[in-house]
Design goal:
The chain is mostly helical. It is about 35% helix and about 0% strand. Bound molecules: heme C (10 copies).
């Protein structure tokens, strides 16, 4: 512990020395003198630097190479724009950022700054707020055009209407598999009525809602991936059960294949009473 403190003090002293404010107490340093040295040329007060949660952070926490730059300010010595690693010095500890290393967006080569404006991080970039009610979805839409287009389909979640956001279902800082470990849970946190446990479960429902629904949009009502009865006939064969049409003299329910299966099997997501999921 002591060793770390000594080391940390060394680093702080070095930085402080570099900006020539060795005599200032550390607490006052961050938001005043050190940044003031930079602000003499970079209009921090009127720029996004001074606003938002990072306003009080030391410039050099995010921009490396500030010593050289200060000694000889100009384009040749300009400090680097921070990559994800610089942000994670502070943000690796919080749960959401922990999985960044495995995230789809890191794998795709994106940096934090691809989505977060440099110094006012909540103002996400590229947000077409005229089209979308929430800035987060507008941000996602600026890159994911195909997925976003599905929200224009006949059946869709109310994204453009402002009733749901991409980030209600996705965490952009992680891998989609981790974000959706329990895919059904992603859905049932809002759709409580569908959540079990039911005495009579329908296996595909407890496994993955996406077997039957497209979360982004579908030309078929209720976000269904395929229309009934084909939706059900992918797994259920009517020929060898009581729905057997025609030939079998005892066929009890004929013509089932021509109807909406859920007209009779209304308990499609599970039932407390009926093994045939009728209610
Ligand atoms: C004496 C004036 C001066 C001071 C003091 C100064 N800079 Fe600069 N800085 C410049 C100039 C000039 C450039 C080059 C501008 C350009 O390339 O458009 C620059 C460029 C930069 C860039 C790169 C901008 C980009 O477009 O990538 C960053 C980041 C930066 N400075 C940060 C700092 C920080 C942090 C400090 C304080 C440690 C600081 N500057 C102090 C003059 C200064
Ligand atoms: C929380 C991290 C963070 C802090 C603290 C920070 N910056 Fe930045 N800064 C960034 C990021 C990220 C970018 C680049 C954004 C991009 O690539 O689009 C940036 C860009 C810049 C630029 C380029 C022009 C621009 O606005 O995009 C300058 C100049 C700059 N910073 C100076 C400073 C100065 C001076 C300070 C201290 C007053 C400071 N920064 C503090 C993260 C930070
Ligand atoms: C020196 C530490 C430090 C560094 C480096 C840093 N941050 Fe922060 N950041 C903070 C603090 C402190 C807060 C406010 C407390 C919180 O929400 O955790 C914050 C908050 C945020 C927020 C939430 C904003 C809000 O309005 O709620 C975002 C987004 C963010 N930072 C992104 C970044 C990005 C992107 C970088 C790299 C360019 C970065 N941070 C680098 C300390 C830091
Ligand atoms: C693909 C876009 C994207 C990238 C890349 C990204 N973020 Fe975010 N980030 C967001 C969005 C959108 C939110 C708002 C989420 C919400 O409100 O639920 C957010 C929120 C945050 C917050 C606020 C705290 C919170 O959980 O609400 C922090 C801190 C943060 N991001 C840090 C980072 C850091 C650090 C990186 C890089 C390692 C990064 N982000 C990369 C889109 C992104
Ligand atoms: C700057 C562009 C950009 C932004 C903004 C962006 N993404 Fe991405 N996203 C990508 C790229 C590139 C990939 C890599 C795979 C691909 O090309 O689809 C990706 C991958 C993904 C994946 C995994 C896709 C798969 O096929 O495995 C999801 C989920 C995702 N993004 C959701 C989001 C969400 C939600 C937002 C808004 C918070 C967002 N993205 C914002 C560029 C972006
Ligand atoms: C109702 C929840 C929900 C909403 C809202 C939502 N998604 Fe998804 N999204 C999912 C699920 C679930 C998956 C499938 C993940 C898997 O296969 O593991 C997915 C998959 C994806 C993929 C991977 C490629 C694909 O088509 O399967 C991308 C990219 C993506 N979503 C982006 C977005 C964007 C951008 C938005 C907002 C415009 C958004 N999503 C809104 C639930 C949602
Ligand atoms: C943030 C809350 C939220 C989450 C998470 C969510 N939904 Fe929804 N869902 C809604 C809202 C709001 C509606 C619209 C309800 C209405 O119009 O009455 C809706 C409607 C639906 C509908 C009916 C569509 C129609 O045309 O009537 C289906 C099916 C659906 N969601 C499936 C899912 C699935 C599958 C998931 C998980 C991938 C999911 N939802 C996650 C909020 C959510
Ligand atoms: C075996 C296919 C299947 C699976 C798996 C499935 N659903 Fe459905 N769901 C349907 C059908 C079919 C309808 C339409 C019922 C109707 O039209 O009466 C529907 C309708 C809905 C509706 C609209 C409201 C309603 O009850 O009519 C919501 C919300 C919904 N499902 C959510 C979910 C969620 C959440 C999951 C995962 C936990 C899920 N579904 C899994 C087939 C399925
Ligand atoms: C007219 C109402 C009705 C329609 C429409 C209907 N079913 Fe049924 N289904 C029933 C009844 C009633 C039973 C048997 C209940 C009993 O024997 O107590 C049943 C039983 C079943 C069983 C259990 C079979 C067995 O042998 O135990 C399956 C699987 C099934 N239906 C699937 C479907 C599918 C798939 C569709 C759509 C193609 C469908 N049903 C359409 C009323 C219907
Ligand atoms: C991904 C495959 C799959 C899909 C799609 C699917 N089911 Fe099922 N279903 C199953 C499995 C597995 C069981 C449990 C095993 C069994 O009893 O046959 C089951 C059980 C049932 C039962 C109870 C069987 C009984 O013995 O009474 C009914 C009724 C039923 N499903 C109706 C439907 C209807 C209606 C649809 C379309 C909306 C549908 N299923 C879509 C896989 C599926």
């Amino acid at each position: 512990m002591n060793r770390i403190n000594v080391k940390a003090c060394g680093v702080i002293a070095l930085l402080a020395f570099a900006v020539g404010i060795l005599s200032n107490p550390p607490a006052a340093r961050a938001d005043t003198t050190a940044n003031a040295a930079c602000s003499a040329c970079h209009d921090a007060a009127s720029s996004s630097h001074a606003r938002g949660v990072h306003g009080k952070q030391d410039c050099s926490k995010c921009h490396s190479g500030t010593e050289k730059h200060l000694a000889n300010p100009g384009p040749e010595t300009k400090p680097a724009r921070p990559g994800a690693a610089a942000c994670q010095v502070c943000h690796v500890k919080d749960a959401n950022r922990m999985n960044w290393a495995f995230s789809d967006h890191k794998k795709a080569g994106l940096n934090c700054a691809a989505c977060h404006s440099n110094h006012t991080p909540k103002v996400v970039k590229g947000a077409d707020t005229a089209k979308y009610k929430d800035a987060n979805s507008a941000l996602c839409a600026s890159c994911h055009k195909e997925v976003t287009a599905r929200f224009n389909m006949f059946s869709h979640h109310p994204l453009k209407e402002g009733g749901i956001s991409c980030v209600d279902c996705h965490d952009p800082h992680t891998d989609k598999k981790q974000a959706l470990t329990a895919k059904t849970e992603t859905c049932t946190k809002c759709h409580q009525a569908v959540r079990g446990p039911y005495t009579m479960e329908h296996p595909p429902v407890t496994e993955d809602c996406l077997t039957c629904h497209n979360p982004h949009g579908s030309p078929i009502k209720k976000l269904l991936t395929v229309a009934q009865p084909a939706l059900c006939l992918r797994c259920h064969s009517l020929a060898d059960n009581r729905h057997a049409v025609g030939a079998a003299a005892g066929a009890r329910i004929t013509g089932a294949a021509l109807r909406n299966c859920t007209a009779c099997h209304g308990g499609i997501h599970g039932s407390a009473f009926d093994q045939h999921l009728r209610y």
